[in-house]
Amino acid sequence: MASIFRPSVWNSKVKITLFAAVVVLCNATGYAQTQTSGGGYVAPKYTELPLGAIKPKGWLLHQLQIMRDGTTGHLDEVHAKIANDNGWLGGKGDNWEETPYWLDGAVPLAYLLDDKALQAKVLRYINWTLDNQRPSGYFGALTKWERETGEKISVATSDKGDDWWPKMIMLKVLQQYYTATNDKRVIPFMQRYFNYQLQTLQQTPIGKWTEWAQSRGTENMLVAQWLYGITKDTSLLRLASVVQQQSFPWSQYFAGRDWVINAAAQQNGVAWMTRHGVNVAMALKDPLVHYQRTGKPEYLATFKTGFNDLMTLHGLPFGIFSADEDLNGNDPTQGTELCAIVEAQFSLEQAVGITGDVRYMDALERMTFNALPSQTTDDYNNKQYFQIANQVHIKKGVFNFSLPFSREMNNVLGMRSGYSCCLANMHQGWTKFTTHLWYGTQGNGLAALHYSPSTVQVKLGATQTEVTIKETTAYPFDDVIHFEINAKSPVEFPLELRVPSWCAEATVLLNGQELQREQGGKMITINRRWKTGDKLTLQLPMQVTTSNWGRNSRAVERGPLVYALKLNELWQQQTDEKEGPYFTVHTTDPWNYGLLDSLVKNAANAMQVRKVKPVDESFVWSLAHAPIEITAAGRRIPAWQIVNDVAPQPVTARDGLFMGPTAPEVEKMTLVPIGCTKVRIVAFPVVK
């Protein structure tokens, strides 16, 4: 099966045929058609489980504990914008996106860890929000007009309100909180607010205050449609349709395709919000939200086309697209904003639930295990605004970004480096990935769609029997996953397991006996009467492979992980007058290697895999803890040097080979998972 997140996976005839089909369907039906009833609504293929049903274990638990002890658990203490007179607590401070951004990760963390102190902390903001909804349904920080007049925002005075955008994030916060607690205040709160929106959007449209809301209206639609799934109130679908009409037409962009081509060609100020990487990351789910509301299959084709185009023209080896801040092509020297990663993760989590497509499950794991961990420090207190695929140093500089800051702080590791949106928003990446390891299925069953050590406790089967499944694994570093079932009484239900597309053939063992084999890119469904003590083992053999990326470069992969050249790391702490302490990272090791062509052609046999460290509860995504090493061979390219802070990719011929002079000596190279690195080469030129 072709992989949707790698470039050059479709031939031109297939692309043209699908594009033509999408255009015909779009012209025949129209994207802006108002939905007035629930007749077209499509229930998700897989349903999300309540927050708290899944508990992290092993290395994943340790990752979340690090976040609790770092900025995720304490951002309100160390980030002045949130700490000082917060507007979401009735003050005059932050009343926009950063507090809701932080809560969007801190709330799930509090309930994933069952941490009472963190729960009490986030409840201050939730309670204030719920308790201070205006009679009209409007909510949020007190507006300037309200403070000056003593009045409250009503339908008639909706123009005196504030931007719709931060409320969209807070709705996601409240949605998660509700699934964890069943707090009876949340559903009526949302009903009143959405009714207020439906009454006022004509006089105060989504884009009245900022283009941010207009570009991110999908977030609003998503929660409204989630509420429709509970209440069946068709006015929520009407609201979602109105928001769609007032927001950026992302589904038209994705289907039309000129959008992504122009984004690759243009880096000017014209329509830059449609190229903004974080906007694009959020918008990925736009066609799927419309498909869910309308049932129109052309939206599924639109998403498939848009995501493939995006990753073909702008994709980077670690599973994310360039976004520095705009889409900026697929050269390995381009950067990616941290916000774009966590928002793309969330969009893919929605894509998985709505479509049930294995390709998006694979894409989510690739992004999570490769792009996410390398952009923060071990203690989760510092982050890069932009990270680079081929990142030979981390330092102050201009680099090759579409938004180079005058203070040159976009690439360093700092708490306040770059814009502070990422400092507030980075917390949803690991937490929401954890809450989407497991999904509910039709037939009162359960699906393991992404793999990490965890337990899940839910009521399953026609009898709604309480079942706990313990997942024990060192995945993504190891290829064996163990599931142990514990049930109050024997119960029949379907259990689905994903076989990743990179796996040639998976094997399932039940209580030590082979049960089933399945090819990659498919789902395994086991429907039986389960009892306490049943043990299921999923074997996903991992082979070393290489993949082709921008400028004819090659990346080395094994399973869901992408591997990078291991370089020693020299850390130095410095201080910027405005942005405070930060870290630079350099290396004294040579990095300008090309990968031998013979290894590319025979990767599985020519590269050796070594397990050098256990993956236990103390694991951290860092060079010191890298558990797997791959030995490869290459030659140095003397002319490959740093220019303007980046290492421009050497020019290769059509056959993929670098034609310039190389060192005569063949040298061994050690590769480690890219998520464990800060400086590295991951996109290699190929040499003889």
Count every beta strand, where a strand is a DSSP E run of 2 or more residues: 26
Overall SS class? alpha+beta
| Largest sheet data | 8 strands, mixed
Oligomeric composition of the shown chains: single chain
Please bin the fraction of helical residues: 25-40%
Rg to the nearest angstrom?
25 Å
Alpha plus pi helix count: 23
Indicate the proportion of strand residues.
15-25%
What is the rounded distance between the termini?
30 Å
User: Low-confidence runs (pLDDT<50, min 5 residues)?
Assistant: 1-36
Shape: globular
Q: What can you see in these coordinates?
A:
The protein has 688 residues and is α+β, with helices and mostly antiparallel strands. The chain has 23 helices and 26 strands. The strands form five sheets. Strands 17, 18, 19, 22, 23, 24, 25 and 26 form an eight-stranded mixed beta sheet that branches. Helix 9 packs across helix 12, helix 11 (217-231) packs parallel to helix 16 and helix 15 (277-283) packs parallel to helix 18. It is globular.
In short:
It contains 23 helices and 26 strands.
Question: Which keywords apply here?
Answer:
seven-stranded antiparallel β-sheet, 23 helices, alpha+beta, 35% helix, 688 residues, eight-stranded mixed β-sheet
Q: What secondary-structure arrangement, pairings included, does this model have?
A:
Layout: H1 12-29, E1 47-48, E2 54-56, H2 58-69, H3 71-78, H4 80-83, H5 98-112, H6 116-131, H7 144-149, H8 165-181, H9 186-200, H10 211-215, H11 217-231, H12 235-246, H13 250-256, H14 258-265, H15 277-283, H16 286-294, H17 298-314, E3 335-337, H18 338-355, H19 358-370, E4 383-384, E5 386-388, E6 413-414, H20 421-425, H21 428-435, E7 438-441, E8 445-448, E9 454-460, E10 465-473, E11 480-487, E12 491-499, E13 505-510, E14 513-519, E15 522-530, E16 535-539, E17 544-549, E18 553-558, E19 561-565, E20 570-576, E21 580-586, E22 593-596, H22 597-601, H23 603-606, E23 608-611, E24 628-636, E25 667-673, E26 686-687
Parallel strand pairs: 8-12, 22-26
Antiparallel strand pairs: 1-7, 2-9, 3-5, 4-6, 6-21, 7-8, 9-10, 10-11, 11-16, 12-15, 13-14, 13-16, 17-18, 18-19, 19-25, 20-21, 22-24, 23-24, 24-25
